[in-house]
Amino acid sequence: MEFQKDNSFFSGRFKSIGFAFKGVFKLITTEHSVMVQTFLAFIMVIAGFLFEISRVEWMMQILATGLVLGIESLNTAIEKIADFVHPEFHNRIGFIKDIAAGAVMFAAFAAIAVGLLIYVPKFL
């Protein structure tokens, strides 16, 4: 089956959105780290409503969640490509995968900091 590019603006965008939703579904249903992060995001939404966080706090929480899930998605894509290119263990592939995982850790630390800044004062 040969790839046919859709040159129509609207139908091309709708197809792109469909591919994006397909990717989100695959991530949430197959990747354990994304499952955990999606669950935590859901918990944070509930906490936001329970603690009646401000509009700015919602924005920061949404951005932090989106950052973590976005970087985790890129990390997963990098890992899948690396495994496809070189299925056996290889030091260089391991190095690349470690760096991608480190990017997720940076985003997770930032999200934890945002969560602490929002919710710790609510308990004090």
TrEMBL record:
The lineage of its organism: Bacteria, Pseudomonadati, Bacteroidota, Flavobacteriia, Flavobacteriales. Keywords: ATP-binding, Cell membrane, Kinase, Lipid biosynthesis, Lipid metabolism, Membrane, Nucleotide-binding, Phospholipid biosynthesis, Phospholipid metabolism, Transferase, Transmembrane, Transmembrane helix. Belongs to the bacterial diacylglycerol kinase family. The keyword rRNA-binding does not apply. It is an enzyme of class 2 (transferase). Pfam families: DAGK_prokar. The chain crosses the membrane at residues 34-53, 99-120. This is Diacylglycerol kinase family protein. InterPro entries: DAGK (IPR000829), DAGK_sf (IPR036945), UDPK (IPR033717). It comes from Flavobacterium aureirubrum. Its EC number is 2.7.1.-. It is found in: Cell membrane. It is a multi-pass membrane protein. CDD domains: UDPK_IM_like (cd14265). GO terms for molecular function: kinase activity. It comes from the Bacteria. The keyword Cell membrane applies.
